Amino acid sequence: MSKNTRNSKPDVNIALLRGINVGGKNKLPMKALAALFADAGCEEVRTYIQSGNVVFRAGSADVEEISSIISASIQDQYGYQVPVITRTAGELQEIMEANPFLAAGAGADKLHVMFLADLPDSAGVESLDPERSPGDEFAVRGREVYLHCPNGVARSKLTNSYFDSRLSTTSTSRNWRTVRKLLDLAAGAG
């Protein structure tokens, strides 16, 4: 969690919203999204592309509380429910460094990360089928699922729905380029 300490700025956080501006559904302008974060007490709010990526400082507010406020505000103002998953800039750096497929030499253009709302239990992880999508690979590390989809993520059967149902959580995915860019934006806010 991000806390404001006496002589330092609060941590930089990244919010990842699931399912907005995808296929013409759940339209939410990024300017309006940034305003929702500012109204919730966040500082230095910046968005990246149209798919619900927000870099911000939480001020004195609790990041989990901000996630709930944003989700409720979107429900109230736009009429649809959007999960909001957050990571700190430090966590995002660790996620970047821990990608087993990048370390094995996979092309960055074939890599994705699913960010999970909750830490999955071992039974859920063990229930995942490594042969579900031949040619594709995944690795669960903490609250992330790393994906290597050489034939493209659009053809993969390694979907959010599959992992959500097996791991009893909610996820949102980002390609590797977006993850890198979000870390760059977070570093610039530091």
UniProtKB/TrEMBL annotation:
UniProt-listed Gene3D superfamilies: SP0830-like domains
Classification via InterPro entries: DUF1697
Signal peptide: none
Taxonomy, superkingdom: Bacteria
SUPFAM superfamilies: SP0830-like
Protein name: DUF1697 domain-containing protein
Organism: Caldilineaceae bacterium SB0661_bin_32
